[in-house]
Amino acid sequence: MKTETPFELTILGSSSALPTSDRYPTAQVLRVPGRFFLIDCGEGTQIQIRRQKISFSKINHIFISHLHGDHFYGLIGLLSTLNLLGLKKDIHIYSPSELKTLIQPQLDHLKADLQFKVIFHPLNFKKPQKIYSDKKVEVFSFPLKHSSPVCGFLFKEIPKQRNIKKEFIKQYNIPVAEIKNIKTGADFKTTDGKVIPNAELTTLPPRPRSYAFCTDTVFLPEITEIIQNVDLLYHEATFTESMKDWAKKTLHSTAKEAAEIARLAKAGKLIIGHFSARYKTVSEFKKEAKSVFENTETATDGNTYKVEQH
């Protein structure tokens, strides 16, 4: 039986501006086949990476949504740790362009001993943009709306080719040169002119999985066009509806608004987080969100959320 390749999100931090005794500021690790992506890097991120037994050596792509401290103050400490561990792979940081200016003096301080390059990739705050791709996954940024320029991120598996049924290769004596075409959807014509439909020769691969990260933002329905049918959606929910006016003033979202985004996007599952430290529990957040979008969970530091293959 073929082993399923993992596609899973680990929450490292789910608090908003202030850390609490059981919640760190925003940070997440998304694991897709063979890759680990760090999304935001609040204080305490490297402590949480250790607690969750995530290999530091696996992380060399870091996505910083915006330049509020609770989303990047852990970055320089993490880079220092990666250096002390002797890692040599280049580190790619996708962030507002100003981040380089902010941390370059600290990097210069480490420069004599820095064993890897730090490569900055500036985000586009005007329109969606593909910012990373390889053979297995592609990543898009898209603008959100907050008191500081901010982007969300969409991670999508690259669709796999169709699976050819091995018994037909021998039965129809299919040449190796034709197999590639068949995997991409072509029919096969035998030497006597008979056409074998692709649907008979192959089976569908697993459906590509996806994850969207929507951090600090006002309620912004237009993003649902970008994240439509996403399997797993994280959306900030700093406040409940009882503080909707304050959410609007601070350019944040409520739990109900996050759920409405999930409903409009036809998401598979919603995780809400970035909770204001003024709340002692998050039960009201969950109740409020589930009244709009049933498949909702409240983020918990250390929890991992899997997206299954279908």
UniProtKB/TrEMBL annotation:
Where do the catalytic residues lie?
D70
Residues at which Zn(2+) 2 binds: D70, H71, D216, H274
GO MF terms here are: 3'-tRNA processing endoribonuclease activity; zinc ion binding
> Entry cofactor note text?
Binds 2 Zn(2+) ions.
Needed cofactors: Zn(2+)
State which Enzyme Commission number(s) the record gives.
3.1.26.11
Keywords of this entry: Endonuclease, Hydrolase, Metal-binding, Nuclease, tRNA processing, Zinc
EC top class, as a word:
hydrolase
Q: Which InterPro entries match?
A: RibonucZ/Hydroxyglut_hydro, RNase_Z/BN
Quote the record's binding site residues for Zn(2+) 1.
Answer: H66, H68, H146, D216
- NCBIfam families referenced in this protein's UniProt entry, alphabetically: PRK00055.1-3, RNase_Z
Query: Its function?
Result: Zinc phosphodiesterase, which displays some tRNA 3'-processing endonuclease activity. Probably involved in tRNA maturation, by removing a 3'-trailer from precursor tRNA.
The record's comment on protein family reads: Belongs to the RNase Z family.
Describe its partners and assembly state. Homodimer.
Name the record gives this protein: Ribonuclease Z
Q: Lineage in the entry?
A: Bacteria, Pseudomonadati, Bacteroidota, Bacteroidia, Marinilabiliales
